[in-house]
Amino acid sequence: MKDGKFDEPELNNISDKLVSIDLQKKLNFKDEMRKFKSYQNSITDEDVYLQYLISIIKSNNNLALLSWCIELCAADGEINEEEKLLLVRIGNMLNIGDTEQDLIQRLMAQRRNVLLEKEF
Fold first, then answer.
1. Model pTM?
2. Residue 29: Cβ-neighbour burial (10 angstroms; 0-12, 13-18, 19+)
C-alpha cells in the first residue's frame, strides 16, 4: 500500500487471508474496499471513521487485530511514516499501550524478515 491505496494483488492477498481464517463470511474485503472508494471523500473525521470500523469488527483479540493491520500495511515490503502514525492511532483506539504496540510491530517485522531470509 505504498500510495495509500490497495492494488488488485494486495486486495487478493488480503481476501485470501480472510478466507484462510474463515472471516470472509463476515467481511468481503474487496467489496468493502470498493464501497469505501465511493464514499472516501465524504469522510470528514478519520478518527470517528476508524472508531466505527473497530466497533463493527467487535474484536475480542485486540493484539491480533493490530498485528493484522501491521501485516496489511507491510504487504508492500515497508511501513511508511503515514502508515506508522495510522497504526499508532489504531493501537490507541484498541487500548493497546505504547510498549505493547512497539513489541507487536517489532515482532511482525521480525516474522517478515524470517519469511524473506528463510532463517531466524
1. 0.79
2. buried
